[in-house]
Amino acid sequence: MSFQTLDINMQPFDMTYDLESGFLRGTIWNNLYDKYKYEATKTNTPMTVENQLIYMIQVYSFAVTELTLFVCTHKDNIEAINMLKKISLEREKIYSYYEMKYRDLDHSSVNETYNYLEGNWPWEGETLCGNMKKY
User: Which of 135, 130, 133 is nearest to 51 (CA)?
Assistant: First the structure.
C-alpha cells in the first residue's frame, strides 16, 4: 500500500495587508480565498468605542492565528515571522488598552480583578461583527 503526502510548504506568502477584509473573508491569504455562499459583512450600525476595540481584537487575533499556522509550516520564512511579530504586538496593544479602559477580557489578565465575568456573555447580548441577528 502506498500513501501520498500533501506538501503543505507549497503555500506562498501571499497575504492581504487589509486584515479586516481577511477577517470578513475567512482567510488572510489572497490565493486561498474562494467566495463563500454566505459572506460576512461588517454591520453598518454605529459601534461604541468599546465594541470597536473588541472588533479589532477579533480581527488581529484571527490574523495572528492564520500567521501562526503558516509559520509552523514555513519556519524559514522571515517575512512571515516578522509580520507575525508585528501583528501580535499590535494585538497586545489593543488588548491591553481595552483592559485598562474597560474590563479584563479573560482569566489571564494582569489586573486579576476577574471582572471578565461581569456583563453579557456572547449569547446574551449584541453581536459585535457582521449582520448576524440576536436570538
Answer: 130
